[in-house]
Automatic annotation (TrEMBL):
Signal peptide: none annotated. Belongs to the 'GDXG' lipolytic enzyme family. It comes from the Eukaryota. Gene3D superfamilies: alpha/beta hydrolase (3.40.50.1820). Residues 173-409 form the Alpha/beta hydrolase fold-3 domain. Pfam families: Abhydrolase_3 (PF07859). SUPFAM superfamilies: alpha/beta-Hydrolases. Keywords: Hydrolase. This is Alpha/beta hydrolase fold-3 domain-containing protein. One of its GO terms (molecular function) is hydrolase activity.
């Protein structure tokens, strides 16, 4: 009864939020007409690349995120956590990573964070997160049902078994949703994870990691590490069997891409130190996954690179100050005690290489990487990262989509670019399982409207070098560069 009442309350809140969104569109009608007339008169630059529906959608998003009266963080966060429900051609089976009796996995992560800290971070204190049960959604494609078919009212184990019967291979994506580390949930990304599951013929383990500002760095990273070990070495009572690292690919968008790469760098550091982790009574190895896949990854937490301003007309992301919480009214969760500037991370750790991932000195030894972005605010950091991976000898498949905004495959599910993106994403994942040795570095530029694929010029991918990105990040947080870069502890 309590569960049904909670579901009714959630549905009511969702309807209320949708009504609010419709009313919020009314003041934007003149802006939409302006876009329309601009296209009719041949004065619109975006019309060369975007269809009318996409152009209007991005205009509304940009106006909503940039000009709306700032809301308390807790209210904005709560709206993105409303579950729209499950129906149609998708399997969802809820799971949880149980808490191990040992604390070895947490201590291993804390040691890694300290070993990679610069002098300021070494001197600072941060809250060490507890190990908690981490929820996740097993997601798979459900064939042969209507688009509005409800999810069967059966136990989660039976949903999982039904999903597994439709999986064509053992490929498992460990997925981390985006949302700037303080918004969204696996439920907001179901359509994207369902499409990935369908195209790769496998399944997705979509993690409900802890959100900031209530749980700042490194809580989400600990949840990610626990979730990976849960796949590899299932705790007693788990409904899944052990998944080989050869069948696991990390995935994530935006902040989720940051988390996927932070987890990868953590594993790399643990392996360099030959660490084994006590997990439910057994010392466990720390393997790397088969591949890493990230869409529009947020790598520079300081948001210091030029594309945040130069690409603003193609993107919908708000001013970087929004991510530091400066404009948000006070509520129960913000500002924090003790106070900090950034929603996600304590001030002294903004340049930590497990936070701003583009500042890592080495990625040598990680598995092949697939990365995609558009003409977005994060383009500079993403392109620099691709160049860095290539320099470190990591096979990296990079796809750039002309005129597309941040995380377009989730924001614009109906455009042809999204289908092309999902297919390329899934094709890379399949290759990591079938023929990983065949993966070589490439740069493909996908043109708008025609989807014509052009081989990109790798030499012109980025004008930035490591000292440049470090200097920009230092300047943004008010430090005097150069500071010593953190080298891996061998």
């Amino acid at each position: 009864m309590a569960a049904k009442d909670a579901a009714k309350d959630q549905a009511a809140e969702l309807k209320k939020a949708r009504r609010g969104m419709i009313w919020s569109l009314l003041p934007k009608i003149p802006l939409l007409f302006r876009v329309l007339f601009s296209r009719i008169l041949g004065m619109s630059e975006t019309a060369r690349y975007l269809d009318l529906e996409t152009d209007l959608t991005l205009t509304v998003l940009r106006a909503t995120l940039s000009s709306s009266k700032p809301q308390p963080i807790s209210k904005t966060q709560a709206m993105t956590l409303l579950d729209p429900g499950v129906k149609g051609r998708i399997w969802i089976a809820n799971a949880v990573s149980e808490v191990p009796p040992e604390r070895g996995i947490r201590e291993a992560l804390m040691d890694t964070i300290r070993s990679m800290s610069d002098s300021e971070a070494q001197a600072a204190k941060f809250k060490i997160p507890d190990i908690v049960p981490v929820e996740a959604e097993w997601t798979g494609y459900r064939a042969g049902v209507a688009s509005d078919a409800p999810l069967p009212d059966i136990p989660e184990e039976q949903k999982y078994e039904a999903m597994m019967k439709e999986c064509k291979n053992a490929t498992t994506m460990l997925y981390f949703h985006g949302g700037a580390y303080y918004l969204c949930d696996p439920s907001t990304h179901r359509q994207l994870t369902k499409r990935l599951a369908k195209n790769m013929g496998g399944r997705v383990y979509s993690v409900r990691y802890r959100l900031a500002p209530q749980y700042p760095f490194p809580a989400a990273l600990l949840d990610a590490l626990v979730s990976y070990f849960t796949l590899l070495y299932p705790p007693p009572g788990s409904m899944h069997e052990a998944v080989s690292a050869r069948d696991i690919v990390f995935g994530g968008d935006s902040a989720g891409g940051n988390l996927a790469l932070a987890l990868t760098q953590t594993l790399l550091q643990l392996r360099r130190q030959n660490v084994k982790i006590s997990w439910f009574g057994t010392k466990r190895n720390v393997p790397l996954p088969a591949g890493i896949t990230v869409l529009s990854p947020w790598l520079d937490i300081t948001q210091s690179m030029p594309s945040w301003s130069t690409n603003s007309k193609w993107d919908y992301l708000p001013n970087p100050d929004n991510f530091e919480g400066r404009e948000h009214p006070s509520d129960d969760i913000w500002p924090t005690t003790p106070p900090r500037k950034h929603l996600y991370v304590d001030d002294a750790f903004r340049l930590h290489p497990l936070v701003s991932l583009h500042l890592n000195t080495s990625w040598e030894g990680i598995p092949p990487v697939w990365i995609s972005c558009g003409w977005e605010a994060l383009a500079d950091e993403d392109k620099y990262f691709v160049s860095k991976l290539r320099a470190d000898g990591v096979p990296v498949v990079f796809e750039e989509y002309e005129a597309m905004p941040h995380v377009f495959a989730a924001v614009l599910p109906k455009v042809a670019q999204t289908e092309r993106c999902v297919q390329g994403w899934a094709r890379f994942i399949t290759t990591t399982r079938k023929d990983p040795a065949s993966i070589t570095s490439s740069y493909t530029y996908i043109k708008a409207k025609t989807l014509e694929e052009v081989e990109g010029d790798v030499e012109k991918l980025t004008p930035f070098e490591q000292k440049d990105v470090y200097g920009l990040a230092c300047s943004k947080v008010g430090r005097e560069p150069p500071l010593p870069l953190v080298s891996p502890k061998l």
